[in-house]
Structure formats: structure tokens, C-alpha cells
Design brief:
The complex is a heterodimer of chains A (199) and B (418). Chain A has 199 residues and is α/β, with parallel strands linked by helices. Chain A is built from 7 helices and 6 strands. In chain A, strands 3-1-4-5 form a 4-stranded mixed β-sheet, with helices on one face. The relative contact order of chain A is 0.15. The N terminus and C terminus of chain A are likely disordered. The chains are: A alpha/beta (199), B alpha/beta (418). At the A-B interface, α2, α4 and α5 of A face β3, β5, β9 and α12 of B. The structure holds flavin mononucleotide, iron/sulfur cluster (SF4) and FE2/S2 (inorganic) cluster. The site of iron/sulfur cluster has 14 residues of chain B, from α13 and α15.
Chain lengths: 199, 418
């Protein structure tokens, strides 16, 4: 998403949002680590993402305000990095490595299995906000290929059967937990951005 | 060829994420010696060892340290733990399983170069690495091995983990510096080099995780003895791996200069289903591919350069006969297109063309003449970009086009005939 597209989004002025006191304390500590406030920007964006689910414009404004940086500076950095989410993601972010070593050992079969179970293609999020499926670049555990990462956890030597088991467990877990924090219509995080969901 | 395990200590079955265990196995014993040697003495030892950077380029570490200007400005040590080169899985070992080895190296190196702050830039996807390394850092602060007045020496050092956020290009040292500063990871024009103008504009040394992990070992063994383990001008041992179509993929430690064949067939158990090798990538997908006739090459910086490739990260990918090289090219090309930072036209546009041509070949929409088109696109990137990402994108594709033309042509015919 290009920076200018953000303008079309529902405006949520930063006054609506604030960090929890625990996050605020972490940001204060982060600021001691760098001689310039901008050094703390990427770590702070990660904290914001943990708290609000993804980086909607209001969240970027809050980060800019907190670090006393121009909003454009925050946007430019956030836009560059794929792990900083500019759209809502599912509760479970399934990232399958399809780079060379994993490809050689059958990664495409894992993608096919995931597509079939979840009914979504790579790059899409299920309409219920439970799953985002993605093909990712080498996770650098090629000696245990094929690999995948779900949220912050790695899975190694995955077979299509194992893939189906993992996803079945997550479907159960997802039914209990509901969509991710920040999913449109969820809790306090406002609407907008049904954008990239797909049934 | 047996392994020579000095850095890689999995076989001991010890939990090296606990400081107590690390200390029991000889950890931090060189601190006294480092104090006696003084900063210049430590740099001299590293120079004598001939240690060459383990991040891929193989630049002599002691020489790099010597480039720091003596002008009294604040100096930084930055660790490149952004491991992202496709095919590679070596720094992960230190970060997750033996985090104090790298941290001990950081302490001695920071002391040697006069840095009081060190940032360890860890790849964003390495959640476990970040957690383990962070925990190790906290253990060191508690035990007085980091912070103010370390072990009563008067030397202060703070170490922080800085997470990447999913951009391969941030492994390039100046992009990494930009990223620590909170900016998009766009490589800088060099000169000025980081040693003079690095993070926050200050003199900075950027070293790979494995490079720094080797420093305590060099001091323990003595630089000459350590150096003698490897081949001439390529001192020491090195973590090397093998993945892809092999029976026993894994990470090993061997002397520099060990023949590639031994790593593939002895340590890696040979090719799956006892097939023939089609192609080998020596050390990550930015290295030009080799044919099966080239695998007697010794695994060191100079020998691989001699056969027109690179040692890179020394993590080998084996591709067996019967594999469709057009599909392999597509994966490689897609990666470098996706990870281009976009600031140089030849790289931004060229990686896009290369990927598009590869896809056309894959779908049967292009004939054999596209091979020459690919070579031409690669030639136009080569040497015309700000950073080496351009070459990383061009060289492997060009090597496939030149060395594997008959296989490519057969794969094209199979598609266009169908
Ligand atoms: C596109 C690109 C990606 C790189 N990725 C890494 C990396 O992930 N890890 C690394 O240590 N060096 C990487 N490098 C090399 C660094 O720029 C730099 O040479 C290295 O960190 C220096 O450390 P060393 O001298 O200890 O090897 C990369 C270089 C380029 C051009
Ligand atoms: S060569 Fe590619 S990655 Fe490197 S600076 Fe230029 S556009 Fe960016
Ligand atoms: S290619 Fe998948 S982990 Fe490296």
C-alpha cells in the first residue's frame, strides 16, 4: 500500500488511542537505548502492532506523537518493512517458506494443502479473520526443510499431513478465540479496511 | 574428513543458554588475557589470525577494525545477525543455542575497538533467537559481565538487541545501519564507509555473528594455531551446512578449505535416492551455481572465487538431477526482485525483468532465445548499482544460463511442445 492511500482510510485521530502503561514503560526504556528518538521507531512500531493488531493510520499517528517524529517519517519506515502490518491480519499468520531448499523438498504441496483446508490463496485473509496465508522467503532453517512460521513459532520438516493437523488444531483454537485483535469490527479498534479479506 | 568442532558444540548436549554452563565450559576465561593485551594487543591478535568476515565477503576483520579514525568520536559495534541469505542457517545456531559465544566475542571486540554500545541486529523472523539472546544479555548484566565497570575493569558496555522487520536488504551493512536509525533499509553510497560514518553518523564496525563468535576461540588457541587449521589465507574453522537434495542435511564445523565433495557426500550423506548432482549453490543463492564437475573445490574464499563463484555463507544447497531448473530460477529471481530496495534503476527494473522472463519460460510463453535475453539483463545490472544486491540477483541467474543451457533448452522444449 502506498503512503497516499492511507488518506482514504477512516481517520482515527491519535487522541482516540493510547498505549497501555506497560507498553508506555517499554517505550520509555527503549528511548534510553538510542542517541536519537528515531532509533526507537521500529521497536515501537512492533509494540504498537502487538497492542493494536496492525498499524492503522491512527496508530501511526500515536507512534509519531509518542516519539515526537513527523507522521511521514513513521509512515515511510512502516511502509518499507513487511513485518509491520499495514492491513489487518488473521489470528493465525501462516507463512510457508517456498524458497529453493524448501521448494526442492515439497513446499508447494504444503501451500496446496493450506489452500485447500483454508479456502484462501497466498496473500489472502479468511473473511472470519482467523487465517492469513502467505508464501515467505527463506526462514533460514533449510536443513530442516520444508519450514513454516505461524505467528512467532517455527515448524520444521513439515509434511502435508502434518500441515493439515496443525491447521485443524488452529481452526479449533480459532473458534474459541475469535479473530485477531484489530480485526475490523472487533473491540475498540474501529471499522474500515475489510479490504483484503476474501471468502 | 572428520568435523573439527570448536564453535559448534551441540554434541556435548549441554544447555549453553545458561550462563553457569557456559562458564563451566571455559566461557569468558580470556577476559584476563584481553585486559593484559589491551585494545591494540587484541586487534593485533585478530590481525595475525587472518580471520576473514563470516558474513559472506571475507574481508579481514583485524584490518577493518584498523580503519576506525582516531578522532575521539563515539564508536559503535554493530552485529549483523540478519541472516537471510536463502540457503543459510548458521548464525541461528549461536543466537538460539550458544548465545554467550557471540556475546563473549562482542565484549572482547568492543573493548578492542573502544565501543561502549553494541546493537545486535537480529532478523525479525528469528523470534526465538531474539528471546534467547535477550535473555542471555540479561544474565550477563546480572553477573557483571555487561553494564558499568565490567568485572571491576573500568570498561563499560551496553548491548541491545535490535529487531529487523522482514527486509533481506537490511543484511547489507549500510542498510542495516539505516534500519537501526529507524529508517527504511536503503543501502548508502560508499564511501564514506561505516568505519568512518556509521550508525548515527559515528564510526561503526559491522561484523557478522560468526565472525565475532570466533574471536574468543582465536585468543584461546593462539592466532597462529587457529589460522593453521584452515587453508592458506583462509584461517580457522567455519560453520558449513548442506541442505536440499541430500540424505543428512545439517550444520557442521570443518576447517576452511575442506573439499565441497566431502561435505556433500560424507557429512551430508550424499544425494537423496543416490541420484547424480545437477547443480550446487555453494553458500546461499547469491552465489553463482556450480556443476557436478566443480564440486572438488575447497570450501574457502579464494578457491570458490577461482571457480567463478563465492564461498558466501558456506551453507551449500544441493540440487539433484531431474530437477526443473526453470522453476529453481523462478524462485531465485522472485526473491531478489521482492527484496530489492528499489533505489537503483538497474536493480529495481532489472530484477523485475529477470523474474518476468523466468516466469515466461516457466509458462512456456518464451523460447530458448529468452536465455540470451536473461544473460543480457544480468549484464546490465552487474556493476551498475549502489550495493551488491544487484550482483546477487544477476550472477546466479547468469551462471545457470551459461552453465546449464542444454538442460534449460530441454526444459523449454518440453513446455513449448506440450
Ligand atoms: C544484499 C546483501 C545482504 C547481506 N546480508 C548479510 C547477512 O544477512 N548477514 C551478514 O552478516 N552479512 C550480510 N551481508 C554482508 C554485509 O554487508 C557485511 O559485509 C558484513 O556484515 C560484514 O561482516 P563481516 O566482515 O564480519 O563478514 C550482506 C550483503 C549484501 C550486499
Ligand atoms: S542494488 Fe538494489 S538493493 Fe542495492 S541499493 Fe540498489 S536498488 Fe537497492
Ligand atoms: S529455503 Fe525454506 S528455510 Fe531456507
Amino acid at each position: 500500500m502506498a503512503a497516499h492511500e492511507m488518506d482514504h482510510d477512516t481517520q482515527s485521530p491519535h487522541e482516540d488511542l493510547s498505549f497501555s502503561s506497560a507498553t508506555q514503560a517499554k517505550i520509555t526504556e527503549l528511548l534510553t537505548r538510542y542517541p536519537r528518538k528515531q532509533g526507537a521507531l521500529i521497536p515501537t512500531l512492533f509494540l504498537a502492532q502487538d497492542e493494536f493488531g496492525w498499524l492503522k493510520p491512527g496508530t501511526m499517528e500515536l507512534v509519531a506523537h509518542t516519539l515526537e517524529l513527523p507522521v511521514t517519517t513513521v509512515l515511510a519506515t512502516a511502509m518499507f518493512y513487511t513485518m509491520l502490518y499495514k492491513t489487518p491480519h488473521g489470528r493465525f499468520h501462516i507463512q510457508i517458506c517456498t524458497n529453493v531448499s524448501c521448494f526442492l523438498l515439497g513446499a508447494d504441496d504444503l501451500v496446496a494443502a493450506a489452500r485447500e483446508v483454508l479456502g484462501i490463496a497466498p496473500g489472502e485473509t479468511s473473511a472470519d479473520g482467523l487465517f492469513t496465508l502467505e508464501q515467505v522467503q527463506c526462514l533460514c532453517a533449510c536443513e530442516r526443510a520444508p519450514t513454516l512460521q505461524i505467528n512467532k513459532k517455527d515448524y520444521f520438516n513439515v509434511t502435508p499431513t502434518k500441515m493439515r493437523e496443525i491447521l485443524a488444531d488452529m481452526q479449533k483454537e480459532g473458534a474459541r478465540l475469535g479473530p485477531s485483535v484489530g480485526w475490523p469490527g472487533h473491540a475498540h479498534v474501529g471499522q474500515s479496511h475489510g479490504g483484503h479479506s476474501h471468502a | 574428513m572428520p568435523e573439527q568442532r570448536i564453535l559448534l558444540r551441540r554434541h556435548l548436549g549441554v544447555d549453553f543458554t545458561k550462563l553457569d554452563n557456559y562458564l563451566k565450559h571455559g566461557g569468558f576465561q580470556m577476559w584476563k588475557r584481553v585486559m593484559e593485551l589491551g585494545p591494540d594487543g587484541v586487534i593485533a591478535e585478530v590481525k595475525t589470525s587472518g580471520l576473514r568476515g563470516r558474513g559472506g565477503a571475507g574481508f579481514p576483520t583485524g584490518v577493518k577494525w584498523g580503519f576506525l579514525p582516531k578522532d575521539g568520536r563515539t564508536r559503535y559495534l554493530v552485529v549483523n545477525a540478519d541472516e537471510g541469505e536463502p540457503g543459510t542457517f548458521k548464525d541461528r545456531y549461536f543466537l538460539e543455542e550458544d548465545p554467550f559465544r557471540q556475546l563473549e566475542g562482542i565484549l572482547y571486540s568492543a573493548y578492542a575497538i573502544g565501543a561502549h554500545v553494541c546493537y545486535i541486529y537480529i532478523r525479525g523472523e528469528y523470534w526465538n533467537s531474539k528471546a534467547v539472546t535477550d535473555d542471555a544479555i540479561q544474565q550477563l548484566y546480572k553477573a557483571g559481565w555487561l553494564g558499568k565497570n565490567i568485572q571491576g575493569s573500568g570498561f563499560d558496555l551496553d548491548v541491545y538487541v535490535h529487531s529487523g522487520a522482514g527486509a533481506y536488504i537490511c543484511g547489507e551493512e549500510t542498510a542495516l545501519i539505516e534500519s537501526i536509525e529507524g529508517k527504511p533499509g536503503m543501502p548508502r553510497l560508499k564511501p564514506p564507509f561505516p568505519a568512518n560514518f556509521g550508525v548515527f553518523g559515528m564510526p561503526t564496525i559491522v561484523n557478522n555473528t560468526e565472525t565475532l563468535a570466533a574471536v574468543p576461540v582465536i585468543l584461546e588457541m593462539g592466532p597462529e594455531q587457529w589460522s593453521a587449521l584452515g587453508s592458506p589465507r583462509n584461517g580457522g574453522t567455519k560453520l558449513m551446512g548442506v541442505s536440499g537434495h541430500v540424505k543428512k542435511p545439517g550444520l557442521f564445523e570443518v576447517p576452511m578449505g575442506t573439499p565441497m565433495r566431502e561435505i556433500i557426500y560424507e557429512l551430508g550423506g550424499g544425494v537423496l535416492d543416490d541420484k547424480e548432482i545437477l547443480a550446487v549453490i555453494p553458500g546461499g543463492s547469491s552465489c553463482p551455481f556450480l556443476t557436478k564437475d566443480e564440486i572438488d573445490v575447497p570450501m574457502d574464499f579464494d578457491a570458490l572465487k577461482g571457480v567463478g563463484s563465492m564461498l558466501g555463507t558456506a551453507c551449500i544447497t544441493v540440487i539433484a538431477e531431474g530437477t526443473d531448473l526453470i522453476k529453481v530460477m523462478c524462485r531465485v529471481a522472485k526473491f531478489y526482485q521482492h527484496e530489492s530496495c528499489g533505489q537503483c534503476t538497474p536493480c529495481r527494473q532489472g530484477t523485475g525483468w529477470i523474474h518476468a522472463i523466468c516466469q515466461k519460460l516457466d509458462s512456456g510463453a518464451a523460447g530458448p532465445e529468452a536465455i540470451d535475453l536473461l544473460i543480457d539483463a544480468c549484464n546490465q545490472i552487474d556493476g551498475n548499482t549502489i550495493c551488491a544486491h544487484g550482483e546477487a540477483a544477476a550472477w546466479p541467474i547468469r551462471s545457470i544460463c551459461k552453465k546449464f543451457r542444454p538442460q534449460l533448452e530441454a526444459a523449454i522444449r518440453a513446455r513449448t511442445a506440450a
